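Thread: "does anyone have the structure for this chain?"

Original post by V.I.:
We have the sequence but no experimental structure in hand. Need at least a predicted one for the grant figures.
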Amino acid sequence: MTSSVAWTGSGGTKPAISGTDQAIPAEQRDYVRAIQAAPDAAAKIAVYAAAVTVIAPRLVLVLGIIQQAAHAEPDLARLGNEIAERRAANMRRFVADLAAAAPLCPAHDQAADIVWATSSAEMYQLPAGQRGWSPERYQRFLADTWRRLLLAD
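Reply from O.Q.:
Generated one for you, tokens below.
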């Protein structure tokens, strides 16, 4: 099942992971609002898969630098941990919104961890960066994976 609802993100190169000139709290991001407004769970998943596909290439670069330098720079290690915790909190919010729209197979915490792991920059890098997948193919894969793993039906 596919959805016609999608989030395409903003074009151009921006310095912040959010894709803008400055950091934006998650609840104020366009794609979060689109997820909240989506009519059903499949549409919410489609919107978020599209957003992750836009964000992941930026995050791969930033996290790669942070991870390489974290052992020598405690501030970068803390920043890496902060990013991971913010991502986990965002996944919990997404799963709560998803659970309000449809029954989920796994428990809430397990569902949030599944989204956290599968939306990671590392997960994006494997098929897109190393196997040559197009962003569109990765987006379809991610949305399909989430529908299969998260939704009860």
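V.I.: this helps a lot. Residues 26-150 form one domain.
O.Q.: and The helical segments are 30-37, 41-69, 74-101, 108-118, 121-130, 135-150.
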